[in-house]
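Shift notes (night). Ran Putative allergen Rub i 1 while the centrifuge was going.
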Amino acid sequence: YTSVIPPPKLFKAFVLDADNLIPKIAPQAVKSVEIIEGDGGVGTVKKIHLGEGTEHSYVKHKIDGLDKVNFVYSYSITEGDALGDKIEKISYEIKLVASGRGSIIKTTSHYHCKGGAEIKEEQVKDGKERAAGLFKI
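Came back to this:
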């Protein structure tokens, strides 16, 4: 994805201030965020209450990495009805790279399935579209 916002400003908004900002700009996606454990750094666990515009109620989100210098953020969705019965967790990495005056947003996701379960490409595509929607907002 691309953005006209430079990496430092985008990282601050989308990562560092996300718990306050996203419920305000996209309440249909995220109703609120509460810290269950930690101080906001690596290892912090958050419960994200999803908005009325979603089919799910919540997810638990654990911060796996936070590099404020290189604008890299990694986290895992470890619990919640959005995971369903086939997925143990989903791990994400977001990296912001300068491009002219703006940014290129690179995301990687890894789906960790339970046992020998498999997920459909439509589920992955749906997750990508939701993430893209938040980036655009």
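The longest helix spans residues 121-136. The mean pLDDT is 89.
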